TrEMBL record:
It comes from the Eukaryota. It comes from Mytilus galloprovincialis. This is Alpha-glucosidase. InterPro entries: Gal_mutarotase_sf_dom (IPR011013), GH (IPR017853), Glyco_hydro_31_C (IPR048395), Glyco_hydro_31_TIM (IPR000322), Glyco_hydro_b (IPR013780), Sulfoquinovosidase_GH31 (IPR052990), YihQ_TIM-like (IPR044112). Residues 340-608 form the Glycoside hydrolase family 31 TIM barrel domain. One of its GO terms (molecular function) is alpha-glucosidase activity. Belongs to the glycosyl hydrolase 31 family. It holds the Pfam family Glyco_hydro_31_3rd.
């Protein structure tokens, strides 16, 4: 179990000396003779305790309040206890990384009686049950943070609940990467407004589980695709499903809450008077960090928590766009030439099929044997060198699973390096007509072996980066090498181990700052290791639950959880061609223009490339990309400063307006606008067929990026033109980068083509969106079965 902020050894020494007991001082240490000497000695030696107490416990013998920096955090009375324990069993039903989780609770007891003691910087509240107790220990560690432990002295329980004081108008942000809601107290479906198309459990609309998993397909219980995905394999997802959950939130009451471990947990924000936190298993450490404003709260991730900070991104990423292509060496080079001939500045080619392909009855898949396949990519080793000399990097794909037909699996299995089942044999997962083993990242020997494979097969080949995919699939009935933690905790920790494996491979090769790897799965401490995140698998549409709009929430919520560098697949990923869910030119270009104002531009062909418009599909699209990438490159110095701020201070690159304008009632709810750095306000076009858009401008003097003669004071809405290629963007009039922004404003738009024949899809919410014909039903079922059973393209 980790210890937050300050060693428990020093806390024991202070508390024991306050009781007149010097036994905790180590042999050979000079024992101070007065309490003040203890305090001064430890403060000087460790710097871990505050000069004054940040928290207060106000106890009257029958009830108590706990404040942190005068913010009421905990409140307990006999009739309304703040702490509960319970017994039961949690059932995890899993299929291909999708989980249905049910808590079968057969007992829940409020701990009403307590005793209280104060020991200088620490207060201890013993909650009583029969002859046993749960000790609630609150300690001011520094003048900036308060830590809380719960120590069990004999009470038997499976679950623990505790309540944090709330206000009805309070907003809550964070919990890792969310896709539906920035303010986690917002209802999923507004009561009284949405039709009851399907059964929705209203009571759970603001409950967020901490469990890494697939985000789901559709993620909207009113949506046809989500409905049938649920029926087929439980893969539809919901408002709370995410690859990257984290037990951390920021309150508009100006404090940060961070629970620092990997238990399965649930955060219930549905009550006006309190937030209820559910923890399965042993409680670890909780930190409460108060600050005067939202920016300082976000800075505290780096300054006052063990979550760490991200490394600077390689500078070459800002030289152009990474094109996602596949098909072999000749096709890779053909795609590059096609783009370059139209003026697209390409800095990288991402080839996810570099390790080869495997043909199945449901189509072409990747061969999960993570090493260069010369048959698929002949001469790749030399082409990597040639392209690098031209300023074009080559990037690859890897995940922690190995196809049993590959030599890497055979080596790992023979050495006992794979996760086992309960009979002691390798745990094999069916990923669709092929079986895979999972490298056991809890086994130091296996960890080092796989790290070595990354160094040898990827880095030594000359590749400049890779997608480090997956990390959410560890089954809860698996058996791992290190049994220190429950398998549920290891499941939630798995993305961190996977990130650590990749990071160590990069660092030990001396390539940090040159190589980039990006991940979708995460948990607390991922930011210590990954170099970049990405938003995972979005639909190739404008849907709010799982399309382009959801990438905005993904970035801003993750940034408010301490991970401030991310990006997304330009054009989305998940395609259902037979249903008409195909990437249009409009969707591709709207997502590309938004990506200009993010740290990294990278395309993906999608899981059904032939159904999708691609960046290389025609001259018009290529010219649009050439212009957008030119703008992205012109922003290079600005983006560098944004990244440096994130690395140094923890302030994310993409910031919700509430971060800078927390007292503006409109800004706090503007979840589909964001600040890129502190100078640019972005209001991406996230609907089809838009030619103009209303934008909210907070306090300040703002200049319209595409027409600098449009200047206006803030605190109001303004409607501006929004043709493709010019998303609504404003900059601060006082920005030191005004000259750069002014130069960008002079870049002309690409003229529209005389005629277009691009594939199209109905806009979300079209007239037949709630109607299923017999033909559509069959197509839907067949397509979903194909896609969900076989995990799309990989």
């Amino acid at each position: 179990m980790p210890q937050l902020f300050c060693s428990d050894r020093w806390i024991r020494k202070i508390n024991s000396h306050a009781k007149g007991n010097l036994d905790h001082w180590d042999k050979g240490e000079t024992k101070p003779t007065t309490r003040m000497e203890v305090v001064v000695y430890l403060m000087l030696l460790t710097g871990c305790l505050a000069a004054s107490k940040l928290h207060q416990v106000i106890d009257n013998g029958h009830s108590f309040n706990v404040t942190v920096n005068d913010i009421l955090i905990f409140q307990h009375t006999y009739d309304n206890p703040m702490l509960y324990v319970g017994m039961g069993r949690t059932n995890f039903l899993e299929f291909r990384g999708n989980f249905r989780i049910d808590n079968d609770i057969n007992r829940r007891v409020g701990l009403r009686n307590y005793t209280y003691q104060n020991f200088n910087w620490t207060d201890e509240i013993d909650f009583l049950m029969d002859d046993h107790q749960l000790r609630f220990r609150i300690t001011t560690y520094t003048d900036k943070s308060v830590g809380i432990e719960i120590i069990n002295n004999g009470i038997e329980y499976d679950y623990l609940w505790f309540r944090v004081v709330a206000e009805a108008s309070e907003q809550v942000y964070g919990l890792g990467e969310q896709f539906s809601h920035l303010n986690l107290r917002e209802f999923s479906y507004t009561p009284g407004k949405d039709p009851e198309l399907f059964s929705v459990s209203r009571s759970r609309d603001r409950i967020y589980p901490i469990w890494t998993r697939e985000q789901g397909v559709g993620r909207d219980k009113h949506d046809q695709v989500t409905f049938f995905a649920d029926k087929m394999s439980g893969a539809g997802g919901d408002y709370h499903t995410t690859y990257f959950p984290q037990a951390t939130f920021i309150s508009s009451r100006k404090y940060l809450f961070h629970y620092d471990w990997y238990n399965y947990a649930e955060f219930d924000f549905s009550h006006n008077q309190y937030h209820e936190v559910f923890i399965k298993g042993e409680f670890s450490n909780l930190a409460i960090i108060p600050r005067d404003n939202m920016v300082d709260l976000v800075k505290s991730f780096v300054a006052d928590t063990p979550l760490g900070k991200m490394a600077p991104l390689p500078s070459w990423l800002r030289d152009g766009i990474i094109l996602g292509v596949q098909g072999g060496t000749d096709i890779m080079l053909k795609r590059l030439k096609t783009a370059q001939d139209q003026g697209v500045a390409v800095n990288g080619l991402w080839i996810q099929d570099w390790a080869g392909i495997k043909n199945t009855t449901f189509g072409q898949r990747l061969f999960w044997n993570w090493k260069w396949n010369p048959k698929r990519y002949p001469g790749l080793d030399q082409k990597i060198k040639d392209l690098k000399a031209q300023g074009v990097k080559v990037l690859a794909y890897i995940n922690p699973n190995l196809n049993i037909e590959g030599d890497l699996y055979k080596t790992a299995s023979s050495q006992g390096f794979v996760v086992k089942n309960r009979t002691g044999n390798p745990y094999l997962l069916d990923f669709g007509e092929f079986l895979c083993g999972i490298v056991d990242l809890t086994n130091p020997a296996a960890f080092n072996w796989y790290k070595g494979q990354i160094k040898t097969n990827i880095i030594d080949l000359g590749l400049s980066g890779w997608m480090a995919d997956f990390g959410e699939y560890l089954p809860v009935d698996a058996v791992v090498f290190d049994k220190t933690l429950s398998i549920e905790m290891v499941h939630n920790q798995w993305p961190v181990l996977w990130a650590k494996c990749n990071r160590q491979a990069v660092e030990e090769s001396g390539k940090l700052g040159e190589i980039v790897f990006w991940m979708r799965a995460g948990a607390a401490h991922t930011s210590n290791y990954t170099t970049l995140m990405w938003a995972g698998d979005q639909n190739v549409d404008f849907s709010y639950g799982d399309g382009l709009p959801s990438t905005i929430i993904a970035a801003t919520s993750m940034g408010l959880s301490g991970t401030g560098l991310t990006h997304f697949d330009i054009g989305g990923y998940t395609t259902f061609g037979s249903l008409g869910l195909r990437r249009t030119a409009e969707l591709l270009l709207r997502s590309a223009e938004m990506a200009v104002f993010t740290p990294v531009m990278r395309t993906h062909e999608g899981n059904q490339p032939d159904f999708n418009v691609q960046a290389y599909s025609n001259q018009y699209i290529l010219l649009q990309f050439a212009r957008l990438v030119q703008i992205y490159r012109m922003l290079g110095n600005y983006t560098t400063s944004v990244i440096q701020t994130c690395v140094r201070d923890g302030i994310p690159a993409q910031r919700p307006l509430v971060l800078h304008y927390q007292n503006d009632p409109v800004a706090v709810n503007a979840k589909y606008q964001y600040m890129y750095g502190s100078d640019l306000l972005i209001a991406p076009v996230i609907q089809a067929n838009v030619t103009s858009q209303k934008v909210y401008l907070p306090q300040g003097e703002w200049v319209f990026l595409w027409n600098t003669s449009t200047q206006t004071a803030g605190n109001k809405y303004i409607t501006v033109p929004a043709p493709i290629g010019q998303p609504p963007v404003f900059y601060q009039k006082t920005s030191p980068y005004s000259a750069t922004f002014n130069a960008i404003s002079k870049i002309p738009l690409v003229p529209p083509p005389p005629t277009t024949n691009q594939p199209s899809t109905k806009a979300p919410g079209s007239s037949n969106s709630g109607v299923l014909t017999a033909t559509n039903s069959v197509l839907l079922l067949l397509t979903l079965y194909t896609q969900l059973m076989y995990n799309f393209s990989i």
